[in-house]
Write a structure and sequence with these properties.
The structure holds two protein chains of two kinds. Chain A is mainly α. Helices cover 48% and strands 11% of the residues of chain A. In chain B, the strands form two sheets. Chain B has a six-stranded mixed beta sheet. In chain B, strands 7-8 form a two-stranded parallel sheet. Helix content of chain B is 18%, strand content 17%. The chains are: A mainly alpha, B alpha/beta. Chains A and B meet through helix 1, helix 8, strand 4, strand 5 and strand 6 of A and strand 4, strand 5 and helix 4 of B.
Chain lengths: 408, 265
C-alpha cells in the first residue's frame, strides 16, 4: 500500500520524502485574491501556516529611476500609477512635497478642491476595499453594492477632470480647473446618498455570522508589532494607536474642518473593517463642511510663483513675458532650490511619503517613494504564521495592499 | 553609433544652463530654534559624535558616523521615543565623491516630530542592519541592496526584492544605463537563431516610435487614411475595415435604437 506522505519521487532533484507533515505551497503571483501580483511561499503544517515568505516585484516599473530623469511636472502623471485605486492621493502627495521644497503657498480655493478630491478618492478606495475584501471572504452582494457607489464617486471625478481612474487633477501649485457647474449639487446628492449605502454594507456584514467568524481574531497586529513594522493608516489605528497625519500634522485645511479619527483596540481584521466603515463617514463629514467653505473663496486656482509655476492661460495668451516663462517652464522645467524634503500625507492606505533630494536641477537627484502598502506587505511574514490557510486570503484582503505602489 | 554618454553619471541633464544661475538653498535653521529638537540633539551629542545637525523644513537632520548606527537607532527608539522608522534608503554620490549617503527617516508619534539620521559610506563599505531594532528595516534594507548594491551585515534574508534574483547591476545607481546597450539588440536573435543569422535578420527594432513603410498615415482621421508616403487628400475614402461576409466587428447603431440618459438613474 502506498503511504500517503511517502510518495516516491519521480524527479531526481526534488525530495518529496519528508520527515514531518509539512508542505510548501506557492500562492500567487496570479491568484484572484492576491490583489495584484503577490507571491507567497507558504510552509504548511496541515492547514496551519508555519512560515510565509512574501515575494514582490512583479509590477516593478522603476518609478524612482523614472523620476530622476523627468522634470517635476512630467513625473506627476506617473504617480497616478502607484495607488491606482485612489490616484489623486498620490498626485497630491507628490505635489505637496514639491511645494514644500519650493515653499509655495497654494490659493484657498485650490486647497478646498484638493481636499474634496482627496476625500472622494479615500471614499473610492475604501469602497473598492470593502467590495473586494468581502468578495474574497465570500460575500458577493456587498461587492455589487459597493461598486455601484464607487461608480457614482467616479462619475464625480469624471465630471471634474474627465478621467475616472488616473486623474492627475492636482498640479504642483494648485489645481488646473475650477469646479464645473452643478458639480456641488451632484456632490451633495452623493453625500446624501452615501450614509444609507454604508448602513447597507454594515447591515449585510456587521452581524453576519460568516463575516464575523472569518474576521474576528484573525490577523492580530499588536501595537508593538504595528510600530516596529512601520504600519500606518487603518492598519495602525486598528491596533489602538490614534495616529492620523491629517489630524497630527495637518496639511491643507484639515485643521479647519471637524472630523474624528476612528480607532479600534481589537487589533484584528474585524476592528480594521469597522475603522474603514467609520472613516467613510468621516470623509463624508469633511466633504459636507467643504461645500460652504468653497463658496466663500476667491477664484484663484494656481499659486503665483513665476519662477516655478506658469501663469494662467489668459495671461500666457496675452502677455509676452508670461508666454516666455511658460515656454521655459515647459521645455526646461522648474528648478527647485537645493535641499531635501520628506513630506508624508495620509493616503487611504496609510502614510504616503515623498522624499525629494534636489540639487537645483530640473530633475530631482533622488526621489524615494514611501508607499504604505510596501510596509503592510512586509508584515505578512510575521502575521501569517500561526494562521490557517483560509485566513491568508482574509489577511491579505484586509491589509488593503495595492501592487502599483508596492513595486512602484 | 550611439552618442557617447558619460558612464559615470547617466542622469538626464538639462539641455540649457544659464552660466550665471546659482540655485538657491532650502533654508537650514539652527537646532536651537526648536525646543524638542534641541533637547534631542543635546542628549544624542552627549553619547555620539554628531558631524552636523540642522533643521530643514521642520525636520531635524543629524549626520552621524557609520559605525554608530545601531547604537544611535537603539537610543532613538528607547530614550528619545522615536517609535517609527518610516523610510530608509541611499543616495548615490559615487560620481562626485565615491560615496553613498544613507538616510533613515524617523517619526515620533508622542512628540509629533520627524527627523532624519544620515551618514556617508564608501562604495564597497558594509553597513550594519537595524532590523533588530525596527523590523520595518527588513524590506527597506533589501530594497536598498537591490537598488544600490549597498551590502548589509546582520540581515536575516539578504536577497534582492524587486528585481529578479539573477539581475546584473543595481538600477538606481547613476551609472546604470537608461536604455538597453548595443548588445541587447542582438540578444534574442543570438538566443533563438544563433549569431550567424545576425546579417540575415538584422537587429531588433528598439525604437517604438520608428516609422516603417507598412504604417499608414492619418490613421486617426476616419475616412481620410492614406497609404504611407501618399499625399493627404480632402476627398473622403470609404475605407471599410469590415471583411466581406465576415462576422460584424462593430454593429452599426441607428439613432432610434439608442437610449440616451439625461441624468444618472
Amino acid at each position: 500500500m502506498q503511504k500517503v506522505n511517502r510518495l516516491k519521487p519521480f524527479f531526481e532533484n526534488l525530495v518529496f520524502e519528508r520527515e514531518d507533515n509539512n508542505m510548501i505551497i506557492n500562492f500567487g503571483p496570479q491568484h484572484p485574491s492576491s490583489h495584484g501580483q503577490l507571491r507567497l511561499i507558504l510552509e504548511l503544517d496541515g492547514e496551519l501556516v508555519t512560515r510565509a515568505i512574501p515575494d514582490v516585484g512583479y509590477l516593478h516599473r522603476g518609478m524612482e529611476k523614472m523620476a530622476e530623469n523627468m522634470i517635476y511636472n512630467e513625473f506627476l502623471p506617473t504617480t497616478d500609477r502607484m495607488d491606482y485605486i485612489a490616484s489623486t492621493s498620490n498626485n497630491y502627495g507628490f505635489a505637496l512635497a514639491v511645494e514644500k521644497l519650493i515653499g509655495l503657498e497654494v490659493p484657498r480655493r485650490a486647497q478646498i478642491i484638493r481636499m474634496m478630491l482627496l476625500e472622494l478618492s479615500r471614499l473610492t478606495s475604501h469602497l473598492f476595499w470593502i467590495a473586494t475584501h468581502a468578495l474574497d471572504v465570500g460575500a458577493m452582494t456587498v461587492f455589487l453594492y459597493a461598486f455601484r457607489e464607487r461608480e457614482y464617486a467616479m462619475d464625480l471625478f469624471e465630471e471634474y477632470c474627465g478621467a475616472r481612474l488616473t486623474h492627475s487633477a492636482v498640479r504642483i501649485g494648485g489645481v488646473p480647473l475650477d469646479l464645473p457647474q452643478k458639480w456641488l449639487i451632484h456632490l451633495m446628492k452623493f453625500i446624501n446618498d452615501m450614509p444609507e449605502a454604508i448602513e447597507t454594507y454594515e447591515g449585510l456584514l456587521d452581524q453576519n455570522r460568516i463575516w464575523k467568524m472569518r474576521l474576528e481574531e484573525v490577523g492580530v497586529i499588536t501595537p508593538e508589532m504595528a510600530q516596529s513594522w512601520g504600519c500606518s493608516g487603518p492598519m495602525l489605528r486598528g491596533s489602538g494607536i490614534a495616529w492620523d497625519i491629517r489630524k497630527e500634522e495637518p496639511y491643507e485645511l484639515y485643521d479647519e474642518v471637524e472630523f474624528d479619527v476612528p480607532v479600534s483596540d481589537r487589533c484584528d481584521s474585524y476592528g480594521r473593517y469597522k475603522i474603514h466603515m467609520q472613516e467613510m463617514r468621516e470623509s463624508l463629514k469633511i466633504l459636507k463642511q467643504l461645500i460652504p467653505m468653497y463658496k466663500e473663496t476667491s477664484p484663484e486656482l494656481m499659486a503665483h510663483a513665476p519662477k516655478y509655476i506658469s501663469a494662467p492661460k489668459e495671461q500666457i495668451m496675452t502677455q509676452n513675458y508670461s508666454l516666455m516663462q511658460h515656454f521655459v517652464l515647459v521645455t526646461q522645467g522648474m528648478r527647485p532650490p537645493v535641499g531635501e524634503v520628506y513630506v508624508a500625507t495620509e493616503s487611504p492606505k496609510g502614510e504616503l511619503g515623498f522624499y525629494i533630494n534636489s540639487q537645483g536641477d530640473p530633475y530631482p537627484y533622488r526621489l524615494k517613494l514611501r508607499a504604505p502598502s510596501f510596509w503592510h506587505t512586509s508584515i505578512l511574514q510575521e502575521l501569517l504564521p500561526g494562521q490557517y490557510l483560509a485566513d491568508v486570503v482574509t489577511i491579505i484582503g484586509n491589509a488593503n495592499i495595492v501592487f502599483g505602489e508596492i513595486d512602484r | 553609433m550611439r552618442q557617447y554618454i558619460d558612464k559615470k553619471n547617466t542622469q538626464k541633464k538639462a539641455y540649457y544652463n544659464d552660466r550665471f544661475y546659482k540655485a538657491p538653498q532650502v533654508p537650514k535653521e539652527e537646532v536651537d530654534s526648536d525646543e524638542v529638537f534641541a533637547k534631542d540633539v543635546e542628549s544624542l551629542s552627549s553619547k555620539f559624535n554628531l558631524k552636523e545637525t540642522y533643521i530643514q523644513r521642520g525636520q531635524l537632520v543629524v549626520y552621524i558616523e557609520a559605525k554608530d548606527i545601531v547604537k544611535v537607532m537603539t537610543f532613538l527608539r528607547d530614550e528619545l521615543d522615536y517609535n517609527f522608522l518610516s523610510e530608509l534608503s541611499a543616495i548615490d554620490w559615487l560620481a562626485k565623491s565615491g560615496e553613498f549617503e544613507i538616510f533613515y527617516q524617523m517619526l515620533s508619534t508622542s512628540k509629533r516630530k520627524r527627523m532624519r539620521v544620515k551618514y556617508f559610506i564608501k562604495e564597497k563599505q558594509e553597513i550594519q542592519s537595524v532590523m533588530g531594532i525596527y523590523k520595518s528595516a527588513d524590506w527597506a534594507e533589501r530594497e536598498m541592496y537591490d537598488m544600490f548594491g549597498v551590502k548589509i551585515t546582520g540581515h536575516h534574508y539578504m536577497k534582492r526584492i524587486l528585481m529578479p534574483d539573477d539581475w546584473h547591476d543595481h538600477p538606481l545607481r547613476k551609472t546604470y544605463p537608461l536604455h538597453g546597450d548595443e548588445e541587447a539588440q542582438w540578444y534574442e536573435i543570438d538566443k533563438i537563431f544563433g549569431k550567424e543569422y545576425r546579417d540575415i535578420i538584422g537587429p531588433e527594432e528598439r525604437d517604438s516610435a520608428k516609422i516603417v513603410e507598412k504604417d499608414t498615415h492619418n490613421f486617426a482621421r476616419i475616412k481620410h487614411e492614406v497609404p504611407f508616403g501618399a499625399e493627404y487628400s480632402e476627398e473622403p475614402v470609404d475605407t471599410d475595415y469590415q471583411e466581406e461576409d465576415g462576422i460584424l466587428i462593430v454593429r452599426k447603431l441607428s439613432k432610434k435604437d439608442v437610449k440616451i440618459l439625461k441624468e444618472r438613474p
